[in-house]
Specification:
alpha+beta; Signal recognition particle alu RNA binding heterodimer, srp9/1; two-stranded antiparallel ribbon; globular
């Protein structure tokens, strides 16, 4: 399998993040994304965040992703093109 996928990985021992390691990858071309189990995409990731940590989490991820979260019911959603990251209270 050949191809290039851009990825951002935050893992700096001099400036640790609460997640320890964070990686964000772009959606790869179909020629790169074939998976043995037939999966063809990841459309959503859901993170449970303690209510006391929510504002700090939102500010941090808005900076990481360069996207503002929108509130919907009890959730905060980062729209990322064809996918999204959702935070839910723990």
């Amino acid at each position: 399998m050949e191809g290039v996928i851009r990825i951002l990985e935050i893992d700096d021992p001099n400036a640790p993040v609460p997640e320890e390691r964070l990686a964000v990858a772009e959606t790869p071309a179909p020629s790169v994304s074939a998976h043995p189990n037939g999966a063809f995409g990841l459309i959503e990731a859901i993170l449970c965040v303690h209510e006391n940590d929510l504002q700090e989490f939102l500010l941090r991820y808005e900076e990481y992703l360069n996207v503002k979260a929108r509130a919907e019911n009890n959730l905060n959603i980062f729209e990322l093109g064809g996918s999204r990251l959702t935070s839910s209270p723990r």
